[in-house]
Amino acid sequence: MKPMPLNQAFTLIEPGPVVLVTTNDGQRDNVMTISWTMVMDFTPRFAITTGPWNHSYQALSESNECVIAIPALDLIDQVVGIGTCSGADTDKFATFGLTAMRGKQVAAPLIRECLANIECQVVDIVERHNIVVLQGLAAYLDDEREERRTLHAVGDGSFIADGVKLDRRELMASKLPDGV
Q1: Which family does the entry's similarity section mention (predicted)?
Q2: Which domains does the chain possess?
């Protein structure tokens, strides 16, 4: 092994898939790309990292709700584009050809083109670490969608797409909580 720059060590441990997080500020919908996500405790509780530098953050923190939309590999260019412009001056739904759909639990829209959507309520904001903890309220999956591979950001402008799914459920069955 050879040394690598410590400030690049984060590229070795990528979190959950890149997601799109939608918000509604009471007047308009917005969407932001989030590359750090985490599932908490085998439950519909999630954490994302964002803060006041993102235009959507104010709507997220004031409305206390959002939608986590999970794009598949075929939306990579939209995901990158959404993450490189601001909703302060861009209608991202129109610019990137996304279809907003009304959910049942929150005012923030679902995204029709995504593989899945999870309506969420904010349950905690850990300002010191810019972590927003979300409770899932409803989930939707487009099980007819052909492209199902999700994206993972390496952190240096490159991405990894999910590959082969390996089934070890039987081996792990005795170790997983009930219902998983």
Answers
A1: Belongs to the flavoredoxin family.
A2: 16-175 (2.30.110.10)
Q: Say which residues have a Cβ less than 8 Å from residue 157's Cβ, sequence separation at least 6.
A: none
Cα–Cα distance for residue pair 82/32, rounded to 1 Å: 6
Q: What is the pTM for the complete model shown?
A: 0.90
